[in-house]
Design brief:
The complex is a heterotrimer of chains A (489), B (95) and C (492). Chain A contains 15 helices and eleven strands. With 489 residues, chain A is α/β, with parallel strands linked by helices. Chain C is an alpha+beta fold. In chain C, the strands form four sheets. In chain C, strands 1, 2, 6, 7, 10, 11, 12, 13 and 14 form a nine-stranded mixed β-sheet that branches. Classes of the chains: A alpha/beta (489), B mainly alpha (95), C alpha+beta (492). The complex binds magnesium ion and zinc ion.
């Protein structure tokens, strides 16, 4: 019997339905892989018994369980999981065990999925390298070619999620994407990841970072697996006022790599200086692959793209500074100080509980909302955000999809990027779609000259995840990306 | 606009994050770096542009007025660092 | 009562000062079963932290979902205050840290409130039509109430009860149109009356379902507005008036002593009758308002507004005019419309066909007198409107004199019996039989020859003596009018 941890979700599902192997065998194989890969620091909590229980329940249905019966998954630590530590990668939530289950993970459980554990992440999803986690950085399973054993980042904030899939510790995982946190790690680790339209996945029970940007989505080895997972994760939730009241399409069943009649836009402004030739080269190959799949390629303009990052770094910290005010040491999490009263307890608790990057963003957010600066920063940013959204609306008059690189670089070494601004630039290609709430996915396209994965980024119209997945499939088939990180752990 | 250490101290106070003078000294230039960078938005002409109010524009739904929640004190207080007699307890507040 | 004609002034060492008052009234929407953004119950006085959802406790990842009935009640209230209803409004976050505020922000409405400008007319002196004054409403916004902090339970800890956290509030912001404690008192009473008519808030200030933030400043008449202070959460009409009085005096003394008034938040201490600065929030506030990204803009359609309008009851002013049109005195009309329960009881009495003027007089004097004696609310009255109607009917058709009616009413209060039954049982019917009265009149005259002489020689005061004698002889049941007529006739 082939190594179960090498199979895709679709293959596992078929194998389970045709009884080639049992769900328990699958769960055990992954539980072992998780334990064997502790060197990657991908998991913050391991829950093997949870995976086994779901597996046994699936086996009891003799292959007639839900859409994900017997499929064990990894869950980003940002999702509330009932009775299991949920800390958002932060010390301030140390030991927090919610009595509730996020809507997205509840949907996955209803479909029969089990949980292998909680996945490491940048603290409160604030980071692009997983180095801001209170649990320490996740080590990417990937290494540069030529025998280098420098520890690389899997990207972030869903770094544990990406590493787990890339290392075969889970066939699929949940991630969240506020400004690229699913797509950039997927690109860095040679896997697929999709952020759906804002509002497709309920935010109920997901620890908030920036409410107007946060969206959950899956990461997996293949486009099809992403479609399978997203179909279960998505859906209207009356408990989230921003949840879209729309039926979930049959994304997997309708997958098609035929792009005849589709127009793919190539944004002029995404050709930026300092982007390695490898990445622009892959971008050009991607264009050819889509042409080959029947798409017509057109040049488009997104003139306000270059203002997307600064806009994001006003809006996201502003919302975060308010969303994170609830971490005050009163109802959950750690508590420090208090000798000289309540305010002292607040300040000491938050000083001890938050890491540097989170503090930095809370400070920025507090400043841009403060008296006298609100209009110059926040209101201005919301106006530019309108313009960025309008850019996309106009672009989509002449195209159906947009193709860009996912990130401006391949994975970098842990500790290599110390300047916050340089770190923020990682999301230069990902953030515009986040600001506009559009569906976008990263698909692996090839390796750079150091042997590290590079991703291609597809952006679609509001609610048109199908076209994004279809284009992803077309690229996947042509890129023939079968590389896996060599096991060193 | 750039912030001096007094402003940083004030922001830290507003955000309820205890910071030593050394931390504030170190943070001020970092924040100024970031602020200087985001201020490039000033060059964008936004005359007559409405600030974005809803990412995907949908209407706010209204909930029916029915009691569907509560009576879960144990769940609500299970993680509390300070709880006494069914209350959350905090260091004495002097009004 | 303050004479509205003479403006209220604080007499200081440097002359007279005018007081400028604006009120922010927080009224809980007690009409709803659940909270503004969560499905937890709102009932007053439950066990601590039992009416708390994960949302109210601001658990990680919890999200607000708006209660439509809260919006409906706030819109109806706005309509009752002749205010502009904004079809497009939005919720904002007011950010500050405090132990009674789990989220670290209050969901409120700063930039686009649900209700815009309106107006209330108040009678500063309800006995004086001329004391009518219009008070402007600037806005009404909907927001979350905070939890409760208890400081006296423990030596070193404060306790937090989140049952109230997230309950819907309407903040009704007046213009600085009031100039005296009496005006402010009249405004709060009128607002309370309207809210109770509409049914959006029970107006129970003791239980805190209505609280006022009192903004006070002083100035020399005609000069620029002075700096105002805001005294928070004043929970009775009497205290509102007291706060204005003492805070205005404090400011005058401060200014005349060469000091300057600081724009600050203050607390009222009823025991000492003083206000003092609120120390726990002393650092300059910077609420960093911004639109709540967990919610979308609130858009109301015509149908929604039509239903709200159609569901409004007759309001105090309308009722008052209707009563006055029935010949009821302005004073009675304003007393009978001051509270929705009283008005309801009185309307029921009118429905029995009782003559409005007489019914109003009787209710305002006899019924209220009795209820005060027994200190009962009108809702607890032992006599129903139907029974009262029956009693007034018997007075109207001459079966009972005013005096007899009082006796019957007393019996009704004790026994709960109907008026007619009591009249039969105790034979309290009055006698209008002229013959029978004549006989007694003759006997009284015959028996008091000396008094008759004195009367005839001009001692008119004795007339009452003869009436008394006749009544006494007839057990108080003789029709007083006939007794008078017969005596006059016979005594010449
Ligand atoms: Mg106020
Ligand atoms: Zn308020």
């Amino acid at each position: 019997m082939s190594d179960l941890t090498a199979l895709t979700i679709a293959q596992l599902r078929d194998g389970l339905r045709s009884r080639q192997f049992s769900a328990r065998e699958v769960a055990e194989a992954y539980n072992q892989a998780v334990v064997a890969a502790r060197a990657l620091n991908a998991f913050t909590v391991e829950t093997p018994e949870d995976a086994l229980a779901a597996a046994d329940a699936a086996d009891a249905t003799n292959g007639n369980g839900g859409a994900l019966a017997g499929i064990p998954l990894g869950i980003k630590d940002l999702f509330a999981t009932s009775g299991v530590d949920t800390t958002a990668g932060s010390r301030i939530l140390a030991g927090f065990k919610p009595a509730y289950e996020s809507t997205v993970t509840a949907n996955l459980r209803k479909a029969g999925a089990g949980m292998l554990g909680k996945l490491n992440m940048d603290e409160f999803a604030m980071g692009s390298s997983n180095e801001t986690s209170a649990y320490g950085p996740v080590i990417s399973p990937w290494r540069r070619s030529g025998g280098s054993n420098a520890a690389l980042t899997p990207g972030g904030s869903s770094g544990g999620s990406a590493a787990a899939v890339a290392a075969g510790l889970a066939p699929g995982v949940t991630g969240t994407d506020t400004g690229g946190s699913i797509r950039q790690p997927a690109a860095f680790t040679g896997i697929c990841g999709i952020k759906p339209t804002y509002g497709r996945c309920s935010r109920w029970g997901i620890v908030s970072f920036a409410s107007s940007l946060d969206q959950a989505g899956p990461l997996a080895q293949t486009v099809r697996d992403c479609a399978i997972l997203l179909e279960v994760m998505a859906g209207f939730d009356p408990k989230d006022s921003t949840s879209l009241d729309a039926p979930v399409p049959r994304w997997e069943a309708d997958l098609s790599c035929d792009l005849k009649g589709k127009r793919v836009g190539i944004p002029r402004e995404y050709r930026i200086d300092g982007v390695p030739a490898d990445i622009n080269g892959l971008w050009d190959r991607g264009i050819e692959w889509l042409r080959d799949a029947g798409a017509e390629v057109v040049e488009i303009s997104l003139p306000h793209t270059r203002y997307a990052l600064p806009t994001y770094y006003i809006i996201a910290p502003a919302e975060a500074s308010s969303n994170l005010a609830r971490y005050d040491g009163v109802r959950y999490g750690i508590r420090e100080g208090g000798e000289s009263g309540l305010d002292d307890m607040y300040a000491a608790t938050r000083a001890a509980g938050f890491g540097d990057e989170v503090k930095r963003r809370i400070m920025i957010g507090t400043y841009v909302l403060s008296a006298g600066f609100y209009d110059a920063y926040f209101t201005k940013a919301q106006k530019v955000r309108s313009l960025i959204k309008r850019d996309f609306a106009q672009a989509f008059e002449s195209c159906d999809l947009i193709l860009t690189p996912t990130a401006p670089s391949a994975a970098f070494g842990i500790g290599e990027t110390t300047d916050p601004l340089a770190m923020y630039l990682n999301d230069v290609f990902a953030v515009p779609a986040s600001l506009a709430g559009l569906p976008a996915m990263s698909v692996p396209g090839g390796l750079d000259e150091q042997g590290l994965p590079l991703g291609l980024h597809i952006i679609g119209r509001e609610m048109d995840e199908q076209s994004v997945l279809d284009a992803g499939l077309a690229i996947e088939e042509r890129a023939g990306f079968t590389h896996r990180a060599e096991k060193w752990w | 606009m750039s912030v001096n250490t007094d402003q940083v101290r004030h922001i830290a106070r507003l955000a309820r994050i205890k910071m030593s003078d050394a931390e504030i000294e170190a943070l001020a230039p970092e924040l100024n770096n970031i602020l200087g960078w985001i201020e490039q938005l000033a060059e964008v002409n936004t005359d007559g542009v409405e600030p974005l109010t809803a990412v995907i524009d949908t209407k706010l739904r209204l909930r029916d007025d029915v009691v569907t929640d509560g009576n879960i004190r144990d769940e609500v207080m299970a993680n509390a660092p300070g709880a006494e007699h069914g209350f959350f307890a905090v260091p004495k507040v002097i009004e | 009562m303050a004479d509205a004609a003479v403006p209220y002034r604080i007499k200081g060492a440097t002359g007279e000062w005018e007081v400028v008052i604006g009120l922010e009234v927080h009224a809980q929407i007690t009409a709803t079963a659940s909270k503004l953004f969560s499905g937890a119950a709102t009932a007053f006085g439950a066990e601590p932290n039992t009416q708390v959802s994960l949302i109210d406790a601001a658990m990680p990842g919890m999200l607000p979902v708006l209660n439509g009935e809260c919006i409906r009640q706030a819109v109806r209230t706005g309509m009752a205050l002749d205010a502009k209803i904004n079809r497009w409004s939005r919720f904002d976050r007011k950010n500050y840290f405090y132990a009674d505020l789990p989220q670290g922000y209050q969901i409120s409405q700063l930039f686009h409130p649900l209700v815009g400008e309106g107006e209330v007319e108040v009678l500063v002196d309800e006995k004086d039509e001329g004391s009518a004054k219009r008070i402007g409403i600037e806005r009404i916004h909907v927001e979350q109430d905070a939890g409760k902090l208890m400081h006296d339970q423990h030596a070193t800890s404060s306790y937090i009860d989140l049952n109230r956290a997230g309950v819907a509030l309407m903040e009704i912001v007046s213009r600085p149109d009031m100039r005296s404690p009496a005006e402010a008192g009249a405004y709060v009473r009128k607002l309370r009356a309207i809210l109770r008519y509409v049914g959006s808030c029970d107006g129970n200030m003791e239980e805190g379902s209505m609280r006022a933030d009192v903004n006070v400043s002083v100035r020399k008449p005609g000069e620029e507005l002075g700096t105002r202070t805001e005294t928070k959460n004043v929970n009775s009409v009497r205290f509102v008036m007291a706060v204005i009085e003492t805070e205005a005096r404090r400011q005058v003394e401060l200014i005349e002593g060469g000091g300057i008034v600081a724009q600050e938040t203050r607390l009222y201490d009823p025991d000492k009758n003083v206000t003092r600065t609120l120390r726990s929030k002393e650092d300059a506030h910077d609420y960093r308002y911004f639109p709540d990204p967990d919610l979308l803009p609130l858009e109301l359609d015509e149908a929604f507004l039509d239903e709200c309008r159609a569901s409004l009851p007759e309001l105090p002013d309308g009722k008052r005019k209707r009563y006055e049109a029935h010949g009821i005195t302005p004073y009675n009309a304003s007393v009978l419309t001051a509270d929705v329960d009283i008005a309801g009881w009185f309307d029921a009495l009118l429905e029995t066909g009782a003559e409005p003027k007489a019914a109003a007089n009787w209710t305002a004097s006899e019924l209220f007198g009795a209820l005060n004696r027994m200190n009962l609310a009108v809702g607890q009255s032992p006599v129903t409107p139907a029974q009262a109607g029956e009693l007034l009917g018997l007075v109207g058709d001459g079966t009972l004199s005013g005096t007899l009616a009082k006796q019957v009413f007393e019996v009704m209060l004790e026994s709960g019996q109907g008026a007619a039954a009591i009249v039969e049982e105790r034979a309290l019917r009055q006698t209008s039989d002229a013959g029978a009265i004549d006989d007694i009149v003759d006997q009284v005259i015959a028996a008091n020859g000396d008094k008759v002489e004195q009367y005839k020689s001009g001692k008119d005061a004795l007339f009452g003596f003869f009436v008394g004698q006749v009544m006494k002889a007839m057990g108080g049941k003789a029709n007083p009018k006939i007794v008078n007529d017969r005596l006059r006739a016979k005594l010449g």
